[in-house]
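Hi W.,

Here's what went into the run:
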Amino acid sequence: MDAILIQILNGLDKGGAYALIALGLTLVFGTLGVVNFAHGALFMLGAFCAVITQKLLTVSKLVKDESITFFDAYKETPYLELWWGDFGKTIIDWSVPISILLTVPLMLLIGLSMERGLIRYFYKRSHAEQILVTFGLAIVLQEIVRSLFGANPIPTPAPSIIAGSAPIGAFLGLDEALVYPWWRLIYLLFSVFTVSAVFAFLQLTTFGMVVRAGMHDRETVGLLGINVERRFTIVFGIAAVVTGLAGAMYAPILSPDYHMGMDFLVLSFIVVVVGGMGSLRGAVAAGFLLGLLQSFASMNEVKSILPGIDQIIIYLVAVVIILVRPRGLMGRKGVMEE
Amino acid sequence: MSKRSLLKNDWVVMALFTVAVLSMPIWLAPIGAAYPDLLQKFAIFGIFAIGYNILFGLTGYLSFGHAVFLGVGSYTAVWSFKLLTMNVLPAVLFAMVVGGLFAVVIGYLSLRRSGIYFSILTLAFAQMSYNMAYSVLTPITNGETGLQLTKTDPRMIDAMFVAPGEGLPSTNLFGMSMSGYSGFYFCAVLLIIGFFISLRIFRSPFGLKLLAIKSNQNRMLYTGFNTKPYLLTAFVISGVYAGLAGALMAVTDPLAGAERMQWTASGEVVLMTILGGVGTLIGPLLGVGIIKYFENIFSALNTNTLHQTFSFLPDWLEDIVVAISSHFVGDGWHLTLGVLFMVIVIFLPGGVMEGFQRIAALARRLSRPQQEKAIQTSEQE
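Here's what came out:
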């Protein structure tokens, strides 16, 4: 029972990340009709926003170390610590949550310039060419990051107050020994919150209404005198922000390295396809579903029956879905069906 | 016979190609590319790209999973070295058969969908194979270490004829060692055969049908033409080519690892094919040549060599130029490749071959007005 609870939490947690990335990807596909292979790179860039924030906050200078008296020792001390003492230390400690402040504008900028600078010239070209050019872009972005930050993963720890584990067993009146990392719980809440925010934005605002109408029938909305293209550009920016936030918050769970984008790219496409191309709700549902499936498949009981199932379960599900029901779990009839 | 009709003759093309490939150690020497390691890579990836081009170039089906067949070919070849004999012929044959079998299974399932779904299906199969090779299939693939030869291998056929020597045996073709130039010539002969088959396919009714599927599959279906068997055949042929390329990798260097199957490795062959010119006969080979050659050159460069290269500039300018360009060389070679690839896809979707054609067309246009002028003046006279 306890093991199952942990696996459910694990699954929801992974699912939260999948759902966020897939939501961004399917927003882009549903509005602009572009298959974006650089989407994983956006996730990676988001994670590196956390790294950049950490580096910015810990800009240091050499200060004489007073604790060592018998020779002159110098140590690197961040400026923030010099100015504000313990408060500065706390700020540095909280660099990952603070990085959200940087991630949002930076990813919005990256998203907008990507769409205006490159993607918009590929609306009329075939899906294959879209895949190729965005694949090239993904390589370029990941190599730029590598030449700036190196090839090794950069640890970006969560704030020390919540670095430990939450005694969820005690919360729920179960076994006291049942614990789960705080940051993962926060990530789950964060992903649920972000997904809700995106949906609320699309459902409750006029802007969102126009976007939804445009996803449904772009031509008619255009004929009504609404500049659909500009709104879709903004949607691309929003998708980049959502994906970037997913990456930035994921940094304490998985230390960012330059090729994490490529690893998540395949997964996010699988999630989108399982949910149905262009279906936002499908992407979110499929994200959580696949996360749960994956974590259950990695339980020892399951692995002893079907060895290796945890490695392939997601892909297996995707293959079956594409072959049996190409429009996915919640896809609209006729979208990308042959 | 005029120049153009000569190039339409398959035998003339083949003769030219054969001479060009076999004399590569001579005419590549001036640019410093004539050493066996690199030449072998040219030939091996050439075979891979030619095969891939038969699928992607003719049918337009973009597969992101071809590295699976490459990896499977390598594993099969190494197992053949381990269990049977160090002779390369059985290894190559087995690898082609196994690569083909994998292609039948993956192709049969993937080809039920087209467009992006096909790409994602091949991607999913590639990731499945890669993950399995790393985890449950470790007894076959030897996991992260990769499959290698050991002294305790049975090598049943070899054991019957020759006494085991000291150290690890090397791959051979009936006693001829497969390292260095002999290895290259073995790969080159297979490349020539592969190119010949691809040439015949391009100019056969079968190839035309594949092209018709690319240009409009629906029309083919409406006329009552079943496209599936043709697509599957093309897929399997390209899988066999990839299996062969994988086997040759093992021939020149007898080990096999799962990283050859990762989907980014499939991406590499896509890059090569597109860069050279997809759907053209010689384009993929050009792409392979360009990528592998510049990979070699660029990876070897570092800041010191850059400082030497740009030493003619004023000091302050030299520092700036070196600072910028150092990101593009050495480990950063992939950045150059990515930029190059994007430029090609954006401006020259037909690759280097399209570039050649455009230059040729430009040259014709430039020379024509002069001819017309000449005709006009002669008429006036």
